[in-house]
Amino acid sequence: MIFVIDGSSKVNRRLQLSAKVYISRLLSYMWSETEISRIVRIINDHPYPDQPLLPTLRCEIPSAALSTTFIENILGNLFAANSNGLKAYELFKYCLQSDFYTPSSDAFEKTLHILARMRYFSKVWELIERIKRTHPSLITLKSMSIVLSRIAKFQSYEETLDAFEKMEKNIFLGKKFGTEEFNVLIRVFSTQRQMKEAQSVFNKMHGRYAPNIKTMNILLLGFKESGDVTAVELFYHEMVRRGFKPNGVTYNIRIDAYCKRGHFGDALRLFEEMERAKCLPTLETITTLIHGAGLVRNSTKAKQLFDDITKRNLQPDTGAYNACMSSLIRSSDVISAVTLMEEMEMRGIEHDNVTYHTMFLGLMRSKGIDGVIQLYSKMLDKNFVPKTRTVVMLMKFFCENGRVDLGLDLWNYLVKKGQCPHSHALDLLVTGLCSRGRVEEAFDCCKQMLVRGRHASELVFEMLKRFLVQMEEFDRLGELENMTKRLKFLLPPPKDYSIGKSAFSSDNQK
Length: 510
Description:
Belongs to the PPR family. P subfamily. By secondary structure, this protein is mostly helical.
């Protein structure tokens, strides 16, 4: 396709834009999963901030080849890979400079999430201010929730309220905050199990922002997550007294609260009450009850509930299968759980991280190292990348069972996949390797972490230092010390997590 462009013509300028869109779309089709993984690995392996990342991005991802889906996939992979948040930020900034790229809410939110998770709050506000000026429609309730949740987790109650207020006055310009924004703030404290703070916000602001049933369910969920069934029931009666009619979500929360505390009989009673109240149970309701049956080791009831799913014209999903497998494993019926996992495969229902984590736990307790190795091999054959919780569990199991070679194999597999394994996994692996005299391999793993712009723990540093001194490997010790010092200088661990008024004042003065 050829476009003849005359800059003086409005028509031709539109043709020029069409050409850019065409080329962008054409090239976006070229990005396969393999190519996305390659780019993620290049970004993770890059020694940023020791060396600038921008030239590499320009070389590996031509501006004309940028597409919305492509960047979303890369950022999603960087998030899952525990990548250095500033690398993701560099990528997103590079994309924003391109005329070919239109940023999406998803890409913006993923970048925010990666930065906030690592507590780079000054960069978070810097990014928000930039997007406010260029693409204000990308700033949504979800992005606000991501930022406030991390502030609530790592900062004080007052700082979280201050951030909420600044969102209203400085970020969401021209928009009057109402019940939806109020619900976001309530959810932020409730999901962090900060129920005194959540109640304080409710009592302080419910006159300004009229609460609805969603508000009450969020608070009820918070009490449930804190593990206090009594508090759940007290607040439930309080919401009814205030005139709110319970809905399906309300019942699901209460049922889950009883299940998690082992009061399965009370959960079944509520289930029956729910049906009498004409609140149709959902797949989530049944899945919750299956979990509850498993917690009291009633695998017969769990299987009955699982079989009832199709009878209710519902279709079991990965979560329902996981719940049933967990119930079987708690009753030491690992064989039936394995059969259920195979049934998922036959029905085309994907195994997720919970599936593997649940099965690994069951196999560790019943078949030991041999059973775990068999499932581990299958997982790798399917190119499945486990999440941090499962990685740490496997690493600990391998090292404690004298199979540090498998721990190293898992580490190398993750690195090859473009992951930056969690520091807990490195702690376990370095301990296992050093205790068996494999200090050189432990040093290499630590170096891989540092090169990727992630800090190793003090435990790892001191352990390697001790062994390297004993071996008189002073060159390697010097290299380790220099890399650690340089990373701390270039990328200091966040100390002051305050959002700071300067984050707004400096930008507003420009």
